[in-house]
Amino acid sequence: MATVISETTDSRYANWQRTVVARYADRSFVARNRSGLELQPVYSGLDRHGEEAEMPGQYPYTRGIYPIHYQYQPWMDLQIIGYGLPSQTRERMDLLLKEGGSKGYFDREAYNFIFDMPTSMGCDPDHPGVRGSIGDCGISVCKASDYEILLAGKDLAKTTVSMVLNAGSPAMLGLYLAAAKRRGFAFDKLGGNVTNYIWDFFGHSGGTNFSPRGSYRLVADIAAYCAEHVPLWNTLTISEHNICEAGANNVQAVGYAIAAIIAVNEECVSLGIEPESVIPRFGFHVRYGENFFEEIAKTRALRRVYAKVNKERFGCSKSSALQARIHAQTAGSLLTAQQPLNNLVRNAYGALAAVLSGVNGMTINAYDEALGLPTEEAVTLSLRTSQMIAEETGAVHVSDPMGGSFYIEELTDQIERRVFEIIEEIDERGGLIACIESGWIKQQVSASAYQWRQEIESGERTMVGVNKYASDEPTEYKVFQPDPEAARLAIADVERHRAERDDSKCKAALEALRKAGIEVREGRNVGSVMANLVAAADADATLGEMQAVLHEVFGRNK
Amino acid sequence: MHDTKPRPRVLLTKSFIDSHDRAIETIALALRDAAMEVVLIDYEQPEDVVTVALQEDVDVIGISFMSGGQVETTQKIFAELQRRDVADLPVVVGGIIRPFDEPPLREAGVKNIFRGGAPLSEVVATFETLSRTYRGLA
Hints:
Chain A is of the alpha/beta class. Chain A has helices spanning 12-24, 86-98, 117-120, 144-150, 169-182, 212-229, 240-245, 250-270, 275-278, 292-313, 342-357, 376-391, 406-428, 432-438, 440-458, 486-500, 503-521, 528-538, 543-554, and strands at 31-32, 38-39, 76-77, 80-81, 109-114, 159-164, 191-194, 233-234, 236-239, 282-288, 326-330, 361-363. Chain A folds into two domains: 1-55, no CATH class; 76-458, Alpha-Beta Barrel (TIM Barrel). In chain A, the strands form three sheets. A five-stranded parallel β-sheet of chain A has the order 3-12-11-10-9. In chain A, strands 4-5-6-7-8 form a five-stranded parallel β-sheet. In chain A, strands 1-2 form a two-stranded antiparallel sheet. In chain A, helix 11 links the parallel strand 11 (326-330) and strand 12.
């Protein structure tokens, strides 16, 4: 293999080579380009300090968490899916599958469900004041039996289910697990994730949530329960994406994302949970789109800081507790209502930055999302964008192709330094939860969002089609219109469900949940809230009923 | 002397179940920097918006939408304005407003619609004009 490194036995390159042989046997990852030139799976050399460069798959994972990345395991395409009733979303799932989407790792099917806002916040369809939002921007789900429609006929042991939602996350996981239990699937075979955005007080998740301390306690409860009973389940998505979308710049967003991990880890430690037992099931969601090279550098810095913090601050040593797994999403807030087709190109650049950063999963937004819920055509084009990068551009032939670039490496180091400064400042202010409670975090993010907007106003920052190259021509475009009947049907369905269930059994399960909640709030039996959510969901309690109990015990943010 | 240049008082609001606060927070800061008094709340019931608007004596209501409820919520707010005898209190909406939302919103009486990318200067000028008109100063 072509390299300037002397292959002594203890060199990073030699270690990498041994790992590749051990892990992938004699499989070759050498590709050829159009001109017939042989491409090595990784290029390396001396770093800017004259030292032997870190290799992909080596601590602190700046260059990626695998020795060989896409050549062995391509990223997982996870288009966001969900609208209306479970039956309507199911129709779209079947379409996506036919188009070659929904591909998970190792031949699994994968779905990335988004829920309507009432569901996302833990409200049933008949909750006062939410009617206008039912089924509009996501699926309406409030009971375990809804999953029997959504996932009818699917082998849940071979389906990865990703659930994107806010305050309703803990109770939603209860519904899914209860549905899986009823269908006879063993919990240790279930794979997927719940974003569990109850950690997010940065502005993206907006409305109702638990109290900040209650939220972080619940995160620990879910993590502890799943570590024991649903070991393949990813219990927490720390979303750098959300923090950016709320208005933070890249450095702030990586800093706050790491601060959130620190707060969760500290919560676990305070409850006697071994961090290393739960951290491997945490992951990141990162935003791509603002600045091509900065996106790549921030990803590399995030992986490095995460590894260092978990090792040095929390004493982790297992590689799975040091490796940041990243789901990429292109930037929603950069999508413009003006000249909407421009967004196709924006999304492609964002997605390419993600691929060059070495990510594990990908959501490419639909170009028409600034106009409304995406059309089927737009969703398909997003999938095609990913397929073009994967199968036409050749970007996948070499792992960490940007490694060693003077620019990228310097930017990575700079971002790392500034991220550690932010972490230090948050520590000095008493930790992240104290910073949320004081309003400091929200103020930082809002100020950054406002500054960005002012740059657009002044023309200092260009948005093509918005503050430059704008056109007055009215744009004709198709917009997806959700079913106006969905609200009526969802409300009728939950009313029928309440009338048909065994009420005394359901009430008893909710009372058991309340008691478990009080115990966990006081720091005992951590993991029992999640266990009781599964039991309550199995006793036909609805999402909103479970949420009301959790709010009573863990408090509300507002 | 009669004050002919009182600061506009504005209520900005968003549903307790909606997400993505970025736009409404940005608008709040822009209006503040234009010397307006801004009240920023989440509402649970659409009717609550009118209660707060009257308690705070505002002269414009701005409602932000990201993920649903555009038409139904706005219609309920207008019905409540009428019921409480303040039907002339101006209402503007902003955010994700789809083409099919627009006719019923206009019909309900919405004065202006701001989508993503609308210049802040335009938003500020609209709130100022609506405030002055409502107070009979224009």
